[in-house]
């Protein structure tokens, strides 16, 4: 692992990114500098590399796993995520068990997290949709009647405005 | 007003053209010789290295210290000189 000089350019670049070291192209004149910086970074934080990789891998596994399974299994999978993410995921887990399962399976944990965000919104939409039917005690037919009367009123106003030029309602005076 | 040397002001005032590496602020005879031994015989070659490091002052300073044994002050001065030159002409 510490034989940096035998690594490929891409591997060095990936290592630099993992340690958060901003870098330019890795060519002859810059390589030794970057190797030195990597050695210093590895001495300070030796274990930084692996935990991230396993983190991503587990996230990916969970995503593909989740796709075809019913909610109970999903909540368990989310439970694993919860342990990593912390308390924030708790709310998503509860919301998701109420909703329809997820749409596509594509890819990474971040997409999965971002997908779980719209679902609280969706659930609010779904709860809102049936609500107007009975909220406030206004029956549907009264709303339709009001709408029609307002539309008729507006048309009447429009017709009167047109009276100056050529109204279809008045008799033609020749 | 920053405390820049006359050498710095002279370098930043015009395109570097074919100026030798000793025209760079912070690079004197000794450091210049060491850089030339490594192939950096003209100021524009050192500029090339600065650009490869994405004009990052810290990276360039570190590189210069490793390459020719410059101290922090000299390396910082050279880095600042190149940065200002780039801001003006690049």
TrEMBL record, chain A:
UniProt keyword list: Membrane, Transmembrane, Transmembrane helix
Source superkingdom: Eukaryota
Domain LEM: 1-45
Gene3D superfamilies referenced in this protein's UniProt entry, alphabetically: 1.10.720.40
Transmembrane domains' residue ranges: 140-158
Region Disordered: start-end pairs: 91-132
Pfam families for the chain: LEM (PF03020)
Bias (Polar residues): 103-126
UniProt cross-references to InterPro entries, sorted A to Z: LEM/LEM-like_dom_sf, LEM_dom, LEM_domain
Record has Lipoprotein as a keyword: no
PANTHER family found in the cross-reference section: EMERIN (EMERY-DREIFUSS MUSCULAR DYSTROPHY), LAMINA-ASSOCIATED POLYPEPTIDE THYMOPOIETIN
Protein name (database record): LEM domain-containing protein
Organism lineage string: Eukaryota, Metazoa, Chordata, Craniata, Vertebrata
Gene that this polypeptide is encoded by: EMD
Automatic annotation (TrEMBL), chain B:
Primary location: nucleus
Protein name from the UniProt record: Barrier-to-autointegration factor-like protein
InterPro entries listed in its UniProt record: BAF, BAF_prot, BAF_sf
Annotated SUPFAM superfamilies: Barrier-to-autointegration factor, BAF
Coiled-coil features, chain-numbered ranges: none
Compartments, as annotated in UniProt: Nucleus
Superkingdom to which the source organism belongs: Eukaryota
Gene Ontology molecular functions: DNA binding
GO BP: chromosome organization
GO cellular component: condensed chromosome; nucleus
Keywords carried by this UniProt record: Nucleus
Record lineage: Eukaryota, Metazoa, Chordata, Craniata, Vertebrata
Pfam families: SAM_BAF
């Amino acid at each position: 692992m510490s034989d940096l000089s035998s690594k490929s350019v891409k591997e060095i670049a990936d290592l630099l990114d993992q340690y958060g070291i901003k870098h330019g192209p890795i060519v002859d004149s810059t390589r030794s500098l970057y190797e030195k910086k990597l050695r210093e970074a590895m001495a300070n934080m030796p274990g930084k590399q692996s935990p991230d990789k396993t983190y991503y891998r587990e996230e990916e596994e969970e995503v593909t796993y989740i796709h075809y399974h019913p909610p109970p299994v999903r909540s368990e999978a989310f439970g694993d995520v919860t342990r990593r993410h912390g308390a924030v995921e708790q709310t998503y887990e509860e919301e998701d068990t109420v909703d329809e399962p997820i749409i596509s399976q594509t890819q990474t944990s971040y997409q999965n997290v971002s997908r779980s965000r719209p679902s609280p919104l969706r659930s609010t939409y779904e709860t809102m949709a049936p609500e107007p039917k009975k909220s406030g005690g206004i029956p549907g037919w009264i709303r339709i009647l009001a709408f029609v009367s307002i539309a008729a009123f507006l048309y009447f106003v429009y017709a009167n405005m047109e009276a100056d030029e050529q109204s279809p309602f008045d008799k033609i005076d020749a | 007003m920053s405390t820049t040397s006359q050498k710095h002001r002279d370098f930043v005032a015009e395109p570097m053209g074919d100026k030798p590496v000793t025209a760079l602020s912070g690079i004197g005879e000794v450091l210049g010789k060491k850089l030339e031994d490594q192939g950096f015989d003209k100021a524009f070659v050192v500029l090339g290295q600065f650009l490869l490091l994405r004009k990052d002052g810290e990276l360039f300073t570190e590189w210069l210290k490793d390459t020719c044994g410059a101290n922090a002050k000299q390396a910082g001065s050279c880095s600042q000189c190149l940065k200002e030159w780039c801001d003006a002409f690049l």
